[in-house]
Amino acid sequence: MEILIFLFVQMLLFAFALWLVNRSRGREEGVPRRSAERGVTKQLIELREARKKSLSMPLTELARPQEMQEIIGQEEGIRALRAAMCGKNPQHVLLYGPPGVGKTCAARLVLEEAKKNPDSPFGADAAFVEVDATCVRFDERAIADPLIGSVHDPIYQGAGALGSQGVPQPKPGAVSKAHCGVLFLDEIGELHPVQLNKLLKVLEDRRVHFDSAYYSPENTGIPAHIHDIFQNGLPADFRLIGATTRAPEEMPPALRSRCVELFFKPLGQKELASIAAGAANRLGMEMDAETSLLCASYCASGRDAVNIVQLAAGGAEHAEKKTIAAEDVEWVAECCRHSRQTVRKLTGTPRVGVCTGLAVTGGGQGIALEIECSIKKTKNGHGRLYLGGMVEEEELELRGRRLKRKGTAHTSAENVRMAFLRRFGLDLSGYDIAFNVPGGVPMDGPSAGIALAVALMSALSGEPPVPFLALTGEITASGAVRPVGGVREKLQAAAEAGAERIVIPAENMEERFHGFSADVIPVGDIAQVMRIAFGIPKEIPSESGTVPLGMLRLAIGD
């Protein structure tokens, strides 16, 4: 009996000592005993407390569109995206466009719209998985691959309980997490070629297959679900939306062939001004239309507009103002070294030897360009052609060979000179002809052909072209006008510049251009261009073609 009592007392002492140890440990970790027993540590409590705190939402996030109609300036692109994603058979999509024009927002919102369509295959729980392709890193030994998925073989550190039993463990990637939903790959053009090829295989099979030297179908120690994954693959039936700032020709053809290609255009001054005004409104600040346009003139994207407004609003609040004024925007532009982007405006007072051509920048934005021409008769009868602001020579890489050729703008100028001889009988070989495109950005491409022709005819005749005129079109040596690219972007740029008449090649004419804000005039011949450009209704037939009478007399009389 005494022995039992002794053992009982010892057990009580042991339990009391254990209680003291646990209590002191809990005090050291700053956690009550009951919480410690439930697995709540000091670090977990600190993490929960940190999650309760936050700063105010940045304006870039506050101004993010919550509905499709809030995305400014991309009506056509959004319509096409809806057609591709919100029907019975959604497609894989490649979205092209410069940064900050709404590609990511549109991709997020289109899935929510698709879910509302009862015929859509996207369910209410369809996932939107977003991956930045520039940050996707994979291990060449297939240990880790966050995009496609990987197999954690038992030989690697941290294989866990199953690994200690020699069981390979498949780890799903983003393609599997996006099953029956949308995988959005931002900057897909930067994806590693190896990853891209794996992705194309997944798009083809709609599942991910895994391999491992440690997998054996006869191994009964492997769980049934792992057997199923190795034998049948992980389901990965999703729709891909890839966004890129690259040009289509820079993307792999194999990817392009599997996707619908859609384009979001660069934002114009009015659209950027609207974004700036909306950002100011969300901050509770006032900003008039003139200041909004001033802000837009310093922006290259919607994000630029939001950032300028946020900093300008901070400066205004510091000065205890509720209005963002022009001086606030100019102060931000000076501090952040934003360059002002001026939009060429056509005037009602045209000049001799000057006309407005239309072009598209490398970012896909249309611009209106001033083209100047001056001529001088030479004494020896051997004139030269000078090009300022235009590319005169370019290099091409072709099958391992580097070729040099005249720039297409230079060729256009030569074609204009030849067309004057063939169509109007004007031999300009005795003239020095100088073309110039002010602005400092080298111009290349054949689309300035008819604008060069108008500028040259104006310089020859001494008559200015009609006011508020803009032109685009390639010209051949015989005087025919050929189609060019980027007509929609050029029309938009011409309208922003204030053009009332826009001359384009007849083969580029579309039915919807008839309702454009300016008068869009299709032409197929240089003689038609001259009649429109100089407003001469009377014409006479000649052996070389139809020629404006007054223009021809003045040109020959020079």
How would you describe the overall organization of this protein?
By secondary structure, this protein is an alpha/beta fold. The protein has 4 domains: 2-52, no CATH class; 74-156 and 169-211 and 233-263, Rossmann fold (3-Layer(aba) Sandwich); 269-336, Helicase, Ruva Protein, domain 3; 354-557, Ribosomal Protein S5, domain 2 (2-Layer Sandwich), CATH 3.30.230. It is 39% helix and 18% strand. The chain is built from 20 helices and 22 strands. A 7-stranded mixed beta sheet has the order 12-15-11-10-16-19-20. The longest helix has 28 residues, at 2-29. The protein is elongated.
Task: Look up the CATH topology of the largest domain.
Answer: Ribosomal Protein S5, domain 2
Beta-strand proportion: 15-25%
Number of strands: 22
Taking pLDDT < 50 over at least 5 consecutive residues as the criterion, the unreliable ranges are: 540-549, 552-558
Strand order of the largest sheet: 12-15-11-10-16-19-20
**Count of individual helical segments:** 20
* Quaternary structure: single chain
The secondary structure category is: alpha/beta
Instruction: Assign an overall shape.
Output: elongated
CATH architecture of the largest domain: 2-Layer Sandwich
Radius of gyration: 34 Å
**Helical residues, percent:** 25-40%
Total domains, how many?
Answer: 4
What is the average per-residue confidence, as pLDDT, rounded to a whole number?
A: 83
